[in-house]
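$ fold --in a.seq
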Amino acid sequence: MKKHYLFLCLLFLTSGAYSQLIPYRVHTKWGFADMTGKLVIPARYDNVWRFRGKSAVVKLNKKYGLIDSTGKLLLPVIYDDIDPRELKKKTWYILKTSSKYGLANTAGKLVLPVKYDELSFEMQNSYAMAVARTVFVKVTPDDVVQEGTKSDWQAFEKMGISMIGREPEKDFMMPYTLNNKKGYLVRGRGAKPDSIPAIYDEIDEINIYDNILRVKKDGLWGVIGPRNNIVFPFLYEEMGSASPGMNLYSGKKGGKSGILKPNGEVLVPFEYDRFYFSNDEFWCISYQNGRKGIIILDGNTPVFIPARYKNVSGNPVEIYEYQGRKVRFFEVETEQGYGYVREDGVDYFKDGK
């Protein structure tokens, strides 16, 4: 309670500037609350999505529209779909009705009417193009609509992401087997080629680029370095990589799961059934007694949100800027529907009859 009080005091120190609104569920309907959890836009929609700029997408009776921060409709709830498209310098909403498309900006202004057969986007300079039969138009990041040509259309690149990287150097070269036991050939840094002898039952190479190996000996798992030095003792029935980016490890001991620091110290006690680690890496879903909770791992000490939910989504967290700090929200589900929980454990929904 003291932690929540301090958090709310921080949030109340506002200058009257526009504050971010959070999707908030009341039973089966959705509205928006402010950062203190006060309902600002009544819960009357079947679903809502976070604000982008001055607008948010809402859904009612299988149709979509846009509202502003007061709840006023910017675009009527008449579209088959509204989908945000984020480019490098611009975000638009793609509007769809039947098989026709249009564009709106994040202020809720209609930029292109819903009459075009196709839309295309150029990522780097954040332009959009639309075509309706033989008519081509080009839209600048400032929402200026210009005449386009077929050659412009053909030159446009669809938005995409490419990852290019170099494979890191590693000391471990390749595994070998001798007398039904496993070892590893090693190179460089003063290590001898046979410095990992064939004495292990199993070798897991998942952390090979961190210059460690998870190995199993006499039925228990531990972690060794490239000179066969023991990093984690052989104490664990199971062992996995909890968060590669944070160099954390999960283990199971006495039938219960916990999380370990790189030096082998226990970060999260061994009292959970299991964990699911998100792609965000700084948090995980905890499983306990048939329910799910959240553990946030990137602070000085872990933050535990108790396992009280039917489900916790592994989707990336929603991050809101407020009073110069970032506040994170996680998507959870109860028996009555899904909702959001703030990083300090405050639920942004109400269940009931």
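$ fold --in b.seq
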Amino acid sequence: NQQQQQPKLAERPASSSYKLPLDEMFDCTHQDMK
């Protein structure tokens, strides 16, 4: 991940704003839910 300090998914705007691969998106979401 070559991204700046960004808030967690819950605090982020729509995922469309960030160009992240679906795999990473789902992974982050699953980790957040745990």
